[in-house]
Fold Odorant-binding protein 10.
Amino acid sequence: MKSSYYLLSFLFLAVFVYCHPSPEDKDAMEACRTELGLTAEGRPDPKDPKTRCLGACICKKRGRMVGGKMIPEKLIAHVKEMHPDADESKIRECADEANKLSDECDVSHTAMKCLHDTFGPPKHGPHGPTTPAGFI
């Protein structure tokens, strides 16, 4: 059970690695938290399905997801802000694999996990160097 909690918490943070909080992302994150009824305090609750949907909501608001599917070109542009040397074909593979799923929350979650597994944490964000605290 503890390992599930830590895995979900890790994946929750991975969402913010690739939906990195620019000022626009922060606004989207706050709007999504409000829409989903989530609070900013404390750790995400791995038992709450709304937590898994936060990444999808942010990506939709930022144009990285439309109709429940990741938009590879938008995802490529965003990931390259943090990983300038990222292989576009690998980003596209993550989007394509995730887009095979039907639930938008699963699509976003799968894409973000794939990107994190493939590229690791960001080297820098669009607004300067990143730190783990910057993802929360």
